[in-house]
Amino acid sequence: MSKLCTACSTSYEDDPGITHCKICEDERQFVPVSGQHWLSLSALRATHQNKWQQHQNELFSVQTVPNFAINQRAFLLQTAHGNILWDCIANLDSATESIIRALGGLHAIAISHPHYYSTMQDWAAAFEAPIYLHADDQQWIMRQSPHIQLWQGDEWDLLPDVTLLRLGGHFSGGCVLHWAQHDGVLLSGDVVQVAPGANTVSFMWSYPNMLPLSAASVNTLIHRLDKVAFSQIYGAFAGREITQNAQFIVRQAAERYIRCLQ
């Protein structure tokens, strides 16, 4: 059994001795004014459901409604070598499980950073899929799983045409997924945050507390991103995607960001 932090959806062992969420007490997140609260997965399923959106023939997103915790979406990427779940949401309900099995199950799970670890352990157990997390963020794993596999370095070839890139920034192990199809597609979580107008991006150390990254960190991030080509970028939240000229827009946004800091 496990319990969920209602502010960030991180999954913990259902232990009465666990009264604080380490993720929320970190300065990149926050504990709500109302205090720390917990919820069981069964209670979440009783009041919430998941909605799906198809963005391309092989790319789907899934998000919980009504809003829960950080309210990110996860992505299902279909490839000829197996399906990948990118990032995670807490609510793995029976309908979602049936849809994913109908689409071919999961070959692997990969997550951008600890705010989206959520109930990754339950998804991995349900689909017998490994979870790829960057080793630099292993201190933020709040519930262990035999499916967790830590990777190191700045690149990890997950499948043919699918690569994980460590960009750092928001978290030391913060990464994005690059899919070398359709002129390049980037799934960025909020390591690269697509802005509400879906015409620019930004970079932050803490979004809720509005703490910026340094110019040096953004320079490093962009340098690592220059190793791949992409025309589209899909962010963590609904409607946050740029479907043309994404690489130029990201580069332009980084240059503007650094100018503002200087």
Give Rg in angstroms. Answer: 17 Å
Q: How many distinct beta strands?
A: 20
Q: What is the helix fraction of residues, given as a range?
A: 10-25%
- The dominant shape is globular
- Per DSSP, what share of the residues sits in E-state strands of 2 or more residues? 25-35%
Structure classification: alpha+beta
Q: What is the chain-wise order of helices and strands?
A: EEHEHEEEEHEHEEEEEEEEEEHEEH
Mean pLDDT: 97
- In order across it, which strands form the biggest sheet? 4-5-6-7-8-9-10
Provide tags for this entry.
single chain, 262 residues, seven-stranded mixed β-sheet, 6 helices, globular
Task: Provide a short characterization of the protein structure.
By secondary structure, the chain is an alpha+beta fold.
Question: Care to describe what's here?
Answer:
With 262 residues, the chain is α+β, with helices and mostly antiparallel strands. It has helices at 22-25, 41-47, 94-102, 120-127, 215-225, 246-261; strands at residues 2-5, 11-13, 38-39, 49-56, 59-65, 74-77, 84-86, 108-110, 131-134, 148-151, 155-159, 162-166, 175-179, 185-189, 193-194, 201-202, 204-206, 211-212, 232-235, 241-242. The strands form five sheets. It has a seven-stranded mixed beta sheet. Strands 11-12-13-14-19-20 form a six-stranded mixed beta sheet, covered by helices on one side. A hairpin with an 8-residue loop joins β12 (162-166) and β13. The longest helix has 16 residues, at 246-261. The relative contact order is 0.13.
